[in-house]
Amino acid sequence: MIGKIRIFLALSLVVVGSLVFVPLQLLSMKTGIWRETVILKVWHKLIVRTLGLRIHVKGALSSRRPLLVASNHISWTDIMVLGSFADVTFIARADMEGWPLIGWLSKLQRTVFIERERKRTAGDQASEIASRMAKGDAMVLFAEGSTGDGNTILPFKSTLFGAASMAISEGAAEQVFIQPLAIAYTRVHGVPLGRRHRPLAAWIGDQDLMPHLKVLMAEGALDVEVHFGEPIAFSKGSNRKETSKLMESQVRAMMQAALADPRPSS
Q: Per the UniProt record, which residue ranges are transmembrane (predicted)?
């Protein structure tokens, strides 16, 4: 019963918040009266608090531009977590565009949707990402190409780093900075999550969204750690596959460090 009440109250709060913030975001996008991320940060913070997520940040988003942030990916909540405190724009898989609420929010944040299985569109998508980076947007790339279970890092796909190469080849920038970022869900109600229970936070593959959302709303009180590494310069002579492997290694190391010694809940 308590879980159902919590779900009802949480959904009600999200709906009311959306009725307030969505018109403000549309106004911001049309007039430029605020930075587009200002309203989104508040909206994301509302969702994060509604879900009971406690965020612990180590390091910071680099101020260098153009910037591509290479991150692991565990759940749709990763976007809410990062968006609640960082001025970033996301690169997401194409099917997210049609999701209720999340797809709408993604469009309001000017998310770049990519069809990873269609090579014909890859060039146009990479070009858009390169253009956005050149304009100063910090683009977050979920480099695994899918979501993991919260225990391990999936291999990074080097093809997804094509936007960095294109930004340089098109003359939009002489170099692109690529920053590793690790996300780890570490505790529930203050108790460290073990390997068996970490998938509680994970949203994997074709899992339905609403059942997962209900589980999170009913459970609540999850701790999530966000660790930023040092950015590296990617230039004309850089090797995309080697860069992908380096980012994968650094993200894996930061994630495992967070899981091995999670910060206390606060």
A: 7-27
- Cα–Cα dist 18/20, whole Å: 5
Domain assignment present for residue 25? The answer is: no
Contact between 126 and 166 (Cβ < 8 Å): yes
Tell me if 111 is assigned to some domain.
yes
Token pair recorded at residue 45: 């913070």
- Cβ atoms 91, 261 nearer than 8 A: no
Question: Looking at the domain assignment, is residue 41 inside a domain?
Answer: no
Domain count, the chain: 1
Q: What pLDDT does 179 receive?
A: 98
Q: What is the spatial distance between Cα 53 and Cα 187, in angstroms, rounded to a whole number?
A: 10
Contact 41, 85 (CB under 8 A): yes
Dist. CA 5–CA 80, nearest whole Å: 23
Q: Which residues pair with 185 in a beta bridge?
A: 224
Model pTM?
0.87
Give me the torsion for CA of 158, 163, 164, 170, rounded to 10°.
140
Domain for residue 33, yes or no? Answer: no
Q: Which domain holds residue 229?
A: 52-260
* pLDDT in the model for residue 73: 94
